[in-house]
Each structure stands twice: as C-alpha cells, then as structure tokens.
Amino acid sequence: MSIRYTYTLLFSFIFSMSQASIYCPPDKTLFCDDDVHYLQVTGKATVINYPASIVRYHDIPNLNQCNIGTIQRIWYIDINQDHQYQNTESSCSQTITLLGVDGQINIVFPSDKTYQCKEEIANDKPTWTNGACDVLGYHVDDTVFEIAQDACYKIFRKFTVINWCVYDHQSSSGYGKWTHTQIIKVVENTPPTINDCTNKVIGVDGDCKTNFTIKNSAFDDAGCPSELLTWAVEIDLWADGTTDYRYGLNETGIYKLVPVANHKEINITLPERVGVGKHKVYWSVKDQCGNFKTCLTTVETKDLKKPTPYMHDFLTSSFQGNVMDLVVPARIFNVASFDNCTPSNKLKYSFSANTNDTIRTINCGNAGFQFFNIYVTDLQGNQEFIDVYMLIFDNGSCNISSGIAGRILESNYTPIQNAHISLTRTGMDPIVSNSDLTGKFKWEDISLYSDYSIRPELSTYYPNRIDIADIKKLQNYIMGTGDLINFEYMAADVNGDNKIRISDIDLLKTKILQPADERSLNWRFAAETDTILNVNDLKTVSEVFDIMKYDGNIDFKAIYRGDINNANKTETESRSIVSLYTKKHDGNIEFYLSEKMNVDGLQIELLIPGLDDKINIHSPYFEIPDQSVNIDKTSKSIRFITLQNFESSVDQPVFVINTGESRDDEVVLTNFSKILREGDQLSKLAIGYKNVEKNEFNISPNPGADIFSITGPSNHIEHVKDINGRSVPFTQNRGEFSIHAPSGIYFITLNHGGFLLTKKLIIY
Fold first, then answer.
1. CA 337 from centre of chain
2. Which superfamily does CATH assign the domain made up of 17-99 to?
3. What confidence score (pLDDT) does residue 5 get?
4. Which segments of 411-504 are extended strands (E)?
5. What is the mean pLDDT of the chain?
6. Least confident of 11-25, 500-514, 664-678
7. What is the pTM of this model?
8. Residues near 113 by beta carbon (within 8 Å), at least 6 away in sequence
9. What percent of the chain clears pLDDT 70, i.e. is strictly above it?
C-alpha cells in the first residue's frame, strides 16, 4: 500500500512539472535610493502547478557607482532547493530601472591658516553633506611659494571636490565639480644678525690711495634658520649723502649679490681706488622669512704708513766751547726722508714724539758722544724714529770725556754676568769693567782716544754643559751628513784653530770625560759679529773691539766651546726623563732602561763608594773602548760615553758595572747622565723605582712611631730617606725596624729580587 502511494506521488510530481508555468511581474522603474528588494513595490513572480514557497530570484545588476542603471531580475522555481539558479529550472526575467535623484550637496572647505615655523602643518580636508545617491571625492594639490612678503613661505593648497554621479569631464559646464584654495602661511619673526657693524680703518698705499674692500657676514639663528640670506649694500663715498655704489640681488654685473648661505661671508671691492677720507656703508640683510636687519658703519681710508727716515746715522762737529754753545737742529740729520702722502718739505723732524722738540744745545758739559732719537712726522701724525749719534769736539777749550758702554751676551742671547772687559791703549794700564746681570758694562768719564782696544775675558765654567748630542752634531758635520748654522761653527771649533776637524771631536770627548781640564779655554768671543756663513768666516772673527767702530754701543758675543746645540738658541733644560732601574747580584750592578727604545748614544757618570781598580764596565749592546771611559778615584766617579746605535730591551741590561764583590752602599747616577734617542732627542737619565702594587709589601702601623713591621715578599731595607732626599739612620731586625728620626714623612726602599721598591711612611 505504501509503495503504491509513493509511486502515485512521484507520477503526480512529474506530471505537475510538465505542466508548471512561472510568470514575472511587470518591469519596474524606481529611483536610485529605492529599496529594490522591497517586493511589495517591485512585484513577485507567480507560478502554476508548483508551490509559491520555492519561487526565488537572482539579480544581475548593471549599475554605476551612483546606483543608477538596470537590474535584470531572473525569477525561477528552485526545484532542488539549493538557492542557486540553474538554466534547467523554469524562469522568467524582470527589468528594474533605477533613475538618479538630485540631492542637496553642501561642502565646507578648510579655512586659511597661519603656523609658526616649528609647528606641524595639519592635513586639513573638506567635509560635506550630500544626497543618498551622490558619490563625492576630493583631490589636493600643494604649491609652495618660498618668497613672500608676509611669511617665511606660503602653501597654496587647492582642493577639488567632484560628484562622480553627475560630473562630466568632457563638458565645459563644470557641473558636479567644486574647487577651493586654502592659503597656509608659515611665519618666523626673528631677523638675522649682522656680525660686524664696527667702524673700520683702511690704510692707503704708496700712491695715497687704496683698494676699497669691505666684507661682512650674518647669521640667522631663529628656531627655523634660513638657509640663504639676501644682502643689499649701499656705499656713500666721502659721506656726502650721495649713494655712489649699490650692491644687491636686483643689481646687475659686478654689483649683483646673489643670496649666500647662512654664516657665509660676502666681499665687496669697489671698481675704483679711493683716496684719504671718511665714507659710510649701509648694510642690509634679509632672511627667507622676510625679516630685515640693517646697520651703518663708517669706513675711513687713512694714511697709516709711517714716514721713511733716510738719515745720517753719524755726524761729527766741533765748536769753541769757551766762546759759544753749539746748536744742533733735528733736521740737520735728514738726507732724503719721504712719505707716501705728505710732501717731503712738509715732514717735521724732532728729537722726541713732541714735534716742537727740534733743537739740542751742546756745551762743555755735554760735549763728546751724543745719542739722539730723530722723529719724522707726516701730516697725518704718523711717526717713525731712527737712532743717530754725534761726536762733538770743542777744539781743546773743554776737557772732553765721555761714557763708553756695551753689552756681552752668549751667542744664544743669554746675558753674561761677571765678564771682565778691558779698555786699553798704548802706554796706559787697562781699565776693567765687569758685566752686570743683563750683560751690560760701561766706563764713566773716559777721555776719548782713537787707539783704544777693548777685549773681554771670562772664566765661568759649566762642567756638564756639553754632551753627546754635541759630539753627534759635530760628527755629522765632519762626515757630511749634517750642517752647522751661524755660531755653531765657532762652538764646533773646539781647539780654536779656525778649522773643524777630527781633532775637535777628540778634544770634545776629553772635555766630557775629564771636565776639570783646560777650564781657561772654554770661551771664545766675537766682536760686532752677528753672522757666520761657513767655516772660512772663522778667520775674520775678531775678539778685540776697535774704538773707531764705536757707534754708541759695543756688542760682544760669547761662545762656549763645544756647546754646539745651544749656540743659536736659548738654552733650555731637557724636560723629559728616562728611568734606569738597577739590579744587584754576584758583584754586578745591572742597569735596565724603563722601556724599549732606539738609542743613538749614552753618556753616564756614576758615583761609586769604594771605587778601585777592580771595577769595570761592559754592555751587551755596544763596545766601550778605554778612551771612552774615565775613572776618577779621587771623586769616586766613573764616566763613559758612546755614540753607537742600538735597540734596547727591558729584559736585558743596557750596561753592567762589575765591582768584583757584592756591595750594600748605593751607587748614584749624576745629572751628567743623558741618553740620545732616535731623532736627536736628548733626555736626562735618572734612577727609577719599580711601581709597587697595593699589597706587594706593607708597613704597619702607618702612621706610627717607634717600631714598625714589614710584610710581603721582601723585607730587606735598602735605605731610608726623608722628603728632602737625605739618608736617615735606621735599625732592622728581620721583619721589624725602627727609624732614628723626628716626626715627618719618610720613604722606605726595599730590595726585592735586585729591584728597588719604595713606600711612604709617616711618623707622628
């Protein structure tokens, strides 16, 4: 029964499909803002022989962005109930047309804005209200104007709004399009600063004219400094109120001033040479924000050049002292003095800066040598003076006497004190004058004779003044690898034979190793000589001054024989010190340099208590011949020198003193000891102590009194010294010791593995 029923239904369904029909509602015309899915308006399809519940539709729109156009609506019977349209399903088509609607559009554009230069510029945009179907969009174009009268710069921001539903770009009506330009000002009100507004003076040249050149610069340091500054300069020659030259951006040719970078200098040179006078310059500078700064300066073109004296520097005259005085006008010394702006006949001559001081009167009280300063003054008040002198005789009516003065300096211009200067002539005893602290000497009330001779003597002795650096310089000159300059020639001629040879090197070595010898031959003198060009000039150098060459002053140069390196410059002590560390063992005292270095030479002096014949010296780096060593048993000293090149190591002693037995007494390295390093760098040598690590050894109590204890890797005290370097007695018993001295600061030196360690101790 059930099967038969189902069969009957299936047969009935197939029969109904074959008879089904669908009918669409009529086409419909609506507006773009209507609801196309509101079926009560658009209509609904009807069917025959099929349930209405499975009637559905499928839309195929053909609309623009404004929702205008058509919709093809396909109504179909969804037989398989999948909500999808298949072309096998019964269907019909309805067309729905959507028309446009003119909506009310109201657009609000951004207003004009003003910003400070450091403010961020907002991205404003237009706003609007529109109809339901309108589609509006906008576009922005910025145009920046960097030159503006009322702002740093302006932005012209153009907004374009288009209603794409009605706008036709091919139409000239512009319907559906709106435009507006927003003006944005960026302002900065701080003007630039002109760097130089001071008055100027320009000196004229020999033709009494000058190139008129001025320069200036400015800077803009506001919150937003300008990159470029624009200048305008007006020049009023002679300050008569007329602008003679104008320079600026709007000028042409050589008068055009293009904008320059912030801080950059501008230079202006007038196309004409300008004579003496006063002028005005008006400076104006503008930044890119339109801010101005101006200033006025005065430029004076002035004769600054002093007159050129052309004088007799020496005149002689005579007078009858018991009859009348001698009147000497300042102008009498003039030969042909001149000036660039003042005619020669307008120049003034005087004995001082006072132009009215023009006369000197000579009588028996001031006859003899007279020294004058003759001043030449031009019309602008510029002055120059020259030293002149006069020798005045009175034809025997006065007893003429005068003072004679001079100065003795080292060739490096260091004054020499206590030199003996002898004034002699045939038939009279020498008159001796001693030089003072400044090297000056003089004789008062000396009768004037033409056959005077003047000779210096000096016995001052400097035992350590010459050193290996002098030997090296002399050796280089003789070998042709170095030069001598000026008074170095005299210093290098150690034996005084006016030649420079190997014998001078031998004598120089002797002076270093045996400084007590030949003390009387340490100085050589040059009278009125300032320049020595070569060794041949040594023959022309005189040590005696001729009074006939006296011009009011006597100059002697004193040269220390052998001191070549200090012959032409002021002697300065070496500021650098190189340390030598000592280590004692097996009767040897080893000396180590503090650092690795290239050495060109050494000179060493050691004071060794108990010095005897058993002491010798050797080095792993160089040979020490007997002639380079001097042992003085009287002074307990040993000296040696070497100019051999070597490279030292901190692990190998630079030289070793063998004493033949262990010694507890201290070997002293004197100030004579020096080292010549690569590049002719001369340094002093001094005994150094190894740096002590914080806990390497310790003394306690510190501060303390009476008895102290030592802890650490070594407790053998080498010596104790006070803050003045004097040795202090002490008593030591193993790890304890006491110092026999008052309260104060002391330095305890211990021997640790042959090296000396030192530590400070305070006794209260």
1. 44
2. Immunoglobulins (2.60.40.10)
3. 38
4. 420-424, 431-434, 440-447, 453-457
5. 85
6. 11-25
7. 0.43
8. 121, 122, 124, 182, 183, 184, 185
9. 88
Distance CA 349, CA 328 (A): 12
Q: What is the mean pLDDT of residues 545-553?
A: 71
Between CA 178 and CA 107 the distance in angstroms is 8
Query: At residue 53, what are phi and psi to the nearest 5 degrees?
Result: -70, -15
**Domain boundaries, given as residue ranges, for the chain:** 17-99, 106-187, 193-302, 314-393, 577-687, 698-763
- Can you tell me the distance from the alpha carbon of 173 to that of 318, in angstroms, rounded to the nearest whole number? 119
Among 166-170, 337-341, 693-697, the least confident range: 693-697
Residue 158, number of CB atoms within 10 A of its CB: 13
Query: How far apart are the C-alpha atoms of 446 and 564, rounded to whole Å?
Result: 38
Report helix, strand or coil for 6. helix
In angstroms, how far apart are the furthest CA atoms of the chain? 188
pLDDT value of residue 694:
42
Which whole number is the average pLDDT over 550-575? 76
DSSP string, 694-743: TTTSEEESSSB-SEEEEESS---EEEEEETTS-B--EEEETTEEEE-S-S
CATH number belonging to domain 106-187: 2.60.40
* Burial class of 439 by CB neighbour count within 10 A (0 to 12, 13 to 18, 19+): buried
CA dist 346 to 337, 359, 378, Å?
A: 11, 18, 7
User: Given the structure tokens 């701080």, which residue do they identify?
Assistant: 190
For 450-468, the pLDDT digits (tens) are 577 899 998 888 877 888 8
User: Going by CATH, does the domain composed of 577-687 fall within 3.40.50.1980?
Assistant: no
Banded pLDDT at 715 (limits 50, 70, 90)? low
Instruction: List the structure tokens of 658.
Output: 């063998």
Is CATH 3.80.10 the right assignment for the domain spanning 698-763? no
Pull the structure tokens for residue 719: 């010596």
Q: Is the pLDDT of residue 213 over 80?
A: yes
Q: Do residues 641 and 468 lie in contact, with contact meaning Cβ atoms separated by under 8 Å? A: yes
**Record: fold of 193-302:** Immunoglobulin-like (2.60.40)
Average pLDDT over residues 373-386: 94
Crossing angle for the helix pair 502-513 and 468-478, nearest 10 degrees?
170
pLDDT tens per residue across span 261-289: 999 999 999 999 999 999 999 999 998 88
Is 223 a residue whose pLDDT tops 80?
A: no
Architecture of domain 314-393: Sandwich (2.60)
CA angle 467, 472, 476 (to 5 degrees): 155
608 phi and psi, to 5 degrees?
A: -125, 110
CA end-to-end distance (rounded Å), the chain: 137
Q: Cα dist. 189→18, 56, 224, 292, 311 in Å?
A: 92, 74, 10, 10, 64
CB 33 within 8 A of CB 101: yes
